[in-house]
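Box 4.2: Ligand-aware structure prediction
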Amino acid sequence: MQLDTKIPGGPLTEKWDRHRFELKLVNPANKRKFDVIVVGTGLAGGSASASLAELGYNVKTFCIQDSPRRAHSIAAQGGINAAKNYKNEGDSIWRLFYDTIKGGDFRAREANVYRLAQVSNNIIDQCVAQGVPFARDYGGLLANRSFGGAQVARTFYARGQTGQQLLLGAYSALMRQVADGQVTLFPRRELLDIVVVNGQARGIVARNLVTGEIETHSAHAVVLSTGGYGNIYFLSTNAMGCNVSAIFKAYKKGAGFANPCFTQIHPTCVPVHGTYQSKLTLMSESLRNDGRVWVPKNPGDKRPPRQIPESERDYYLERKYPSFGNLVPRDVASRNSKHQCDQGKGVGDTGLAVFLDFADAIKCDGKDLIEQKYGNLFSMYEKITAEDPYETPMMIYPAVHYTMGGLYVDYNLMSTIDGLFVLGEANFSDHGANRLGASALMQGLADGYFIIPYTIGGYLAGTPLSEINTSHQAFVDTALIAKERISKLLSVNGNRTVDYYHRKLGLIMWEYCGMTRNDHGLVTARKMIQELREEFWENVIVPGINLNFNQSLERAGRVADFLEFGELMIIDALARKESCGCHFNEAFQTEENEAKRDDDHFKYVATWEFKGDELEPVLHKEQLAFENVELTQRSYK
Amino acid sequence: MIKTINLTLKIWRQETSGAKGQLETYHASNISTDMSFLEMIDTINEQLTLDGKDPIAFDHDCREGICGMCGAVVNGRPHGPEKGTTLCQLHMRHFSDGDTVVVEPWRSRAFPVIKDLAVDRSAMDQIIQAGGYISVNTGGAPEANTIPIPQDTAEMAMDAAACIGCGACVASCPNASAMLFTGAKISHLALLPQGKPEAARRALAMVSKMDGLGFGNCTNERECEAECPKEISITNIARLNREFIKAGFFSSIM
Ligand SMILES: Cc1cc2nc3c(=O)[nH]c(=O)nc-3n(C[C@H](O)[C@H](O)[C@H](O)COP(=O)(O)OP(=O)(O)OC[C@H]3O[C@@H](n4cnc5c(N)ncnc54)[C@H](O)[C@@H]3O)c2cc1C
Ligand code: SF4
Ligand code: FES
């Protein structure tokens, strides 16, 4: 495997312009001769499908849900960043670029991040034109708020439903292309494998989730936008269907997997409350703009919060980080919550929670204003917990939320397999070791609306592609392997359910490869996963048949992949002998317990190449060059 | 502290689209009142699986009330008894020990059952395909702040845009009409200046598509508004009607 970033030459600010000029163009009349498969209809896949179809490509779009509008992007609450500087606070493309690089703890590629900041403004224009009802000021112009540790207000939002509204925008553009016949839609389909012919991605094998049939589809290029893999932890804020399977299958077919251990744990989620629990709910981090985080000063203090006097409370974020206070970045906030709970200061029945208190904000701004800002979040909290956050502080705890790792892509967003492009959360590209709030939506839409439409053209125009269809042997063989695996899953017929294994795997990952890590724990975890995987294949029970709607079978396939992929995350975590962003190895910390990077040895993207089921993956390094920003130790004091 | 209840469930089981279905009885014991309704079904499914039986199929994904994937009729009410709540956000504390709970799929000619509680709602995508968009290609957008939109207007558009496309309005309507869903989209776009140029064509196309797909007419029963988990207002149907009449009026010149 050869890593080639394809970063264009020239000054940072001119690279993208220059690249667009240098990319070959597909003659408009020829575009209809090219078929493109897009897997996933979240912000990345939805926007890509629509934009490619508008250009004239024949697009085939796949998703697991019954409608493209239900992709997991729909759940994003907080907002989307752009460098519009509408607030006149001195924001700029350069500042958004710099914040993203720094927030990612200097483990992302400068050129990609700069381009992301450049196109951020076009995204807002595009979405407004589509009718996305962003929040507005009294004068009728777009409103902004500050979010997730940014010191400028650059976040655009639509109540607490920003992801929903952006996705409905992309979905409507996609539906328009479906009506035009430019996009053929394949909902309730799950990708089972990628088909590679002569080293080029030329199609996919998918399961029709309603009938159970295995289908093959060919194309000239394949775009994966299948989202993140946070569900490996079983409990996460991700939707139930989120999985690693699509990108993991691509990895096994030769696509490098970059930084798999970089996972983000979000600080403000509703704490775990029972063993039956199926997922965790995020409470938007915008709450930290007005809520104050605290724990009792004395370990084991179980008094109701309102009975704990001010003098016996520890507002630990304000105390430790006087300039950022409650608005420190996510990784810092999460680790601090864990630290407090580890000291026995956690609150609630489980002791695994901290308070997020709005009493002062309500006193200062009035209940009405707080309700206007956070009403829907407060009522969501009340629905889940039956507690009223206007009266009693919320209880929150960190939960797995986002995966910065993903398939390795070059500047064109192409993986190490020719013709296989990867967009959105599924790639590794822009967030380094930690993602800033409101920047995943921005990246998904940047990739789909404004990057892939150009770069895929460059590939299609400049690459000889043989004429093939699904009768090619590679399709037949790949489909056969997929079918065999399904038969195998159905035939184990043991006596433990799929969820049993998923929960167990989740606990291992959370304990040893979660907010903090250490070498001993990681080594232990790797062994535990291997054992669990072995047991899964001997003892799992998957009811029902293949040729029908079978949700247990769907889950079984995904969990089987997680059971392999978990090991890769651990291998990656073990190999990175430093702490950076969300990867916190206890052996590498500053005196103030912050992540301590080792730029001399680990300033690289760790990309793993699959060598076979029984063999260790091989590490390839993309050395990151920082020519435009100075590497500093993050400090939020 | 943790409270648990026992329930008798009568759940619709139907093997495939063409098969005949029936209600089957299940006993759920020690159900924590902090569980969501879907987690309660998960628990039953775990047991069914261990007993070598086929678990109950039901659609779900986000489990936080936003994707619109979940939904079933619980004791005659789409998404169950709580106002403004999707099935995934309905918690078991709203049920009492000893209750019998009947769970059925959405029923509508336009939503064939796939299996058990899962139905095919692709007809709703087809309504959107008929015109539920603003025709703007990627790249062709003007600077976002060139069109100021009064805050009230934007908020009204957002109220309508909050629809999650779950189909409960159809399931609750005696005529199986999709007017609330369609009206919400038509309103969202017609309220905004960007959506005005196509408003007439959009209203005609979406309404005629809806009729063609076998959804019924609106006779003002207002069940949809009562059951909508996002509390989409029935004023959106009035707005649809206005747009539709305007469109019919102008259609001669279009
Ligand atoms: C609760 C929550 C709140 C968030 N809030 C914010 C926020 O405020 N701001 C922000 O910037 N980011 C936020 N994020 C992150 C952001 O929402 C996601 O990173 C982003 O939406 C991912 O978009 P995507 O298009 O890459 O993937 P997704 O939206 O996850 O879409 C994945 C698509 O791939 C399909 N798919 C997956 N696997 C397969 C397969 N095997 N076969 C076929 N299809 C498949 C799915 O059906 C789906 O259509 C939030 C995330 C969560 C969990
Ligand atoms: S209008 Fe309400 S009930 Fe109907 S689809 Fe939309 S959210 Fe569901
Ligand atoms: S599962 Fe998404 S709305 Fe209920």
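In the box above, the bound molecule is flavin-adenine dinucleotide. The radius of gyration of chain A is 24 Å.
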